[in-house]
Design brief:
This protein is mainly α and 177 residues long. It has helices spanning 7-22, 26-46, 56-69, 74-93, 120-129, 138-151, 155-159; strands at residues 166-167, 172-173. It has a two-stranded antiparallel ribbon with strand order 1-2. It is elongated, with a radius of gyration of 26 Å. 16% of the residues are buried. The mean pLDDT is 86.
Length: 177
Amino acid sequence: MATPSNYDQQVRDFFGYLRVEAGLSPATLDAYRRDLDLLKEYLVVAGAFCCSDVTPKHLAAHVRYLHRDRGLQASSVARHLSTIRMLFRFLHASNRIEKDPAKLLETPTRWKRLPDVLSPKKMKQLIEAANPKFGRLWQRDRALVELMYAGGLRASEVAGIKPDDFKETLAVVMVTG
């Protein structure tokens, strides 16, 4: 397989920088090596035989390839992008390329998993855990747990409630999420 003329040497220099200057772990270096091997394969097919020939279009197409053709999850594509950005930032900073083609690449958004929901049985146990035998503040604790449950609030949202957020005349609690 033909390789970009200066790609291998520049990647070796990059890895020297990562080992010596950045002090990355061997496992991280292995992951970066795999990412850059895939990039090299793609660049050869795309006809970019010098690192200075690589354009943002090449890199954007490579990212689409990783997601669509290779079936990588957004988190894996994001790691690949991080590796690619670091390589081209290094090449640009060391004056090996004139422009950084990875500078404007967008990171794919990762789906955030919703938290699991407590079963009614677990919720009842949680509410009943706040009782007088556990101290003087049991009523406060129970009110907070019930507020979280009834309002679908996160602990951080309840923790952020201030006395001024309770509007007694309206029977409302203002919550900032």
